[in-house]
From TrEMBL:
Recorded catalytic activity of this chain's protein: a quinol + 2 Fe(III)-[cytochrome c](out) = a quinone + 2 Fe(II)-[cytochrome c](out) + 2 H(+)(out)
Superkingdom: Bacteria
Assembly behavior: The cytochrome bc1 complex is composed of a cytochrome b (QcrB), the Rieske iron-sulfur protein (QcrA) and a diheme cytochrome c (QcrC) subunit.
Source organism: Streptomyces dubilierae
UniProt cross-references to SUPFAM superfamilies, sorted A to Z: Cytochrome c
Pfam families: Cytochrom_C, Cytochrome_CBB3
Record's protein name: Cytochrome bc1 complex cytochrome c subunit
Main localisation: membrane
Length: 270
């Protein structure tokens, strides 16, 4: 007992006991603790990227290259981000038709949203870029419609028309109509600048600015919204209004002139 008591009073005894306790605690935790959420998320993300790579190899690699580096038939996808994939594939613009015109049009989508997410995850893994926005980012709830209209007329109306009806550009290109386009895709288009459109990152148009623009488009394109000026002629602006005036205004004047001339000729014969 005296020997045991002496060992317990040894200067290093407390340190040895502490180290043994820590080793036992760590071993028990490693043996019985569940896998961390971070590891599970990483595994799920890796699986998503792998599935996306398979879809990419079948539907995209022939134009954009086996590693997304781009070819003569398609640009590089390194750094375009998940938002660009979600927009292009979600609107059916990609994969593009074999014979392309001056602009890739919107068409029926051939992928499910789950497959689009997998493709987006793979492309995002090639290089950093804009991420797919959350609903909180693009939801117009609580946004300033008047401010959105001001921003839209300043930055977008030159191509899309002041109510988003679309318009013609040069060399057969065009700005598509924004009627019926989902709020998420409008946000992604502003973030990524697809085709002829310039990009508007958060440094140019803040997240709130984008929400305001989306709210404005929702308001002007809503079926419940009535035009305060009456017949809006499709909302196409001075082009359609001038055409209306030319056809019906000038046509009416010609009709009146013919009628007056006919009455005059008849009077002279009498």
């Amino acid at each position: 007992m005296k020997k045991l008591s002496a060992r317990r009073r040894h200067p290093l005894a407390a340190l040895v006991v502490l180290l043994l306790a820590l080793a036992c605690t760590g071993g028990l935790y490693a043996a019985f603790a569940p896998a961390s959420k971070a590891q599970a998320d990483e595994s799920a993300q890796s699986l998503t990227i792998e599935e996306g790579k398979k879809l990419y190899s079948v539907g995209c690699a022939s134009c954009h290259g086996t590693g997304g580096q781009g070819t003569s038939d398609g640009p590089s996808l390194v750094g375009v981000g998940a938002a660009s994939v979600d927009f292009q594939v979600g609107t059916g613009r990609m994969p593009a038709a074999t014979s392309q015109g001056p602009q890739v049009p919107k068409k029926k989508n051939i992928y499910t949203q789950a497959e689009i997410d997998q493709l987006a995850a793979y492309i995002a893994s090639l290089g950093a870029g804009p991420a797919i926005p959350t609903e909180d980012q693009y939801s117009p709830e609580g946004a300033d419609i008047a401010k959105g209209g001001e921003l839209f007329r300043t930055n977008c109306a030159q191509c899309h028309n002041f109510t988003g009806k679309g318009g013609a550009l040069t060399h057969g290109k065009y700005a598509p109509s924004l009627e019926g386009v989902s709020e998420k895709h409008i946000y992604e288009a502003m973030q990524t600048g697809p085709q002829n459109m310039p990009s508007f990152p958060d440094t140019t148009l803040s997240e709130k600015n984008k929400k305001d623009i989306i709210a404005y488009l929702d308001a002007v394109n809503s079926e419940k919204t009535e035009s305060p000026g009456g017949l809006e002629l499709g909302g196409l602006g001075p082009v359609s209004e001038g055409l209306f005036g030319w056809i019906f205004g000038l046509g009416g004047l010609i009709a009146v002139a013919v009628w007056v001339a006919a009455r005059t000729a008849k009077a002279k014969k009498s």
